[in-house]
């Protein structure tokens, strides 16, 4: 491989980058590389998304990329296509940033990676470097991606073309930790390829780009980042359920424990959603099973977090029982449908599970979701604004901690409502119980 030429192209910013997958991570990555002068050709199978991008309009509004995207498109630095043939042969670097979901069985679904690798391989040439960013279990790059690329291209990895793994570290909706503001790691087939890839990413990252021992180490580091967070959240959720039975507020406990210098704050909530935490742990546990090891802690954490939406439903039922009401025909307003605050991302959102439970009991459901400009979400009417809440409601259920909800005037809201006993269920514990109790019947995670 002619890495000297590739490094010179990086230095001159004449390297062409093809990014496969223009979603929550792929699109901002494409924009950031284009902003500093690289020519980007994005590839996605969604024609509507491609048309939107080529018109300078971000298809993912909560990423706030419209202005930046429009500029790089107008400058000719970023184009998008559904056609691999128009993209891959022109590229020096090919980044795979596609989803890695799980199947209904919880087994890893590598179909997106396999299909992308197959299409890349058909048009792959010499002296190109393929970089996988999607979260996977250790071994996927070398055991799945490389064999497909070699089979389709009839070329040899590490001789004709290079492969590296650079795990994505991007948190949609997070203004503090953007792509530019987090360190990244690189694992590659050899040190020379790793250095070249490091040089590429250093252009868009203000922090360190760290080369690790090999590809599997890089893959493993990414998957445990997400598993660690999942387990920490599961621990807080389980503690909330235990302390609830002791009449102890878990939020008071966390605040007290945080006075110790090495205590790390995590908080309980309605559940864990998104494209990472509900799925990534199963990638490692599946591989562990194949190797004859039964992972107990990781799966226990998943079980706790998976149960939280059902716990929220039961909490709501208990609150209605106290009000001498049934779930059936109750008017329930759900605050937030997305899986996390200040985004409109519905992937694996806990709200969907809670809504399914409520539907089985024939509840009447309305959603307030300001970050999703759709009139219907999960089959329920979306009214966008707190001010549009019907006056004749029985329950307010907060699931997503949007800033609009954190700053809500509870007294003003209460005065608008007709019924005497209105239940308020805080599924994220963003309110102080006593403040809410001044106006509503209050139930929260860990508090009844």
Blueprint of the fold:
Blueprint: H1 3-12, E1 16-20, H2 26-35, E2 39-43, H3 47-54, H4 66-74, E3 78-81, H5 84-87, E4 93-96, H6 111-123, E5 129-132, H7 140-153, E6 162-165, E7 184-188, H8 191-201, E8 209-211, H9 215-245, H10 250-257, H11 280-290, H12 297-322, E9 331-335, H13 350-360, E10 364-368, E11 376-377, E12 380-382, E13 395-398, H14 403-406, H15 410-416, E14 423-426, H16 433-437, E15 441-444
Parallel strand pairs: 1-2, 1-4, 2-3, 4-5, 5-6, 7-8, 9-10, 9-13, 10-12, 13-14, 14-15
Antiparallel strand pairs: 6-7, 11-12
Helix pairs in contact: 1-8, 6-7, 9-11, 9-12, 12-13
Structure commentary:
With 448 residues, the chain is α/β, with parallel strands linked by helices. It folds into two domains: 3-212, 3-Layer(aba) Sandwich (Rossmann fold), CATH 3.40.50.720; 232-448, 3-Layer(aba) Sandwich (Rossmann fold), CATH 3.40.50.720. The protein contains 16 helices and 15 strands. Strand 1 (16-20), helix 2 and strand 2 (39-43) form a beta-alpha-beta unit. Helix 9 packs parallel to helix 12 and helix 12 (297-322) crosses helix 13 (350-360). The radius of gyration is 24 Å and the shape is elongated.
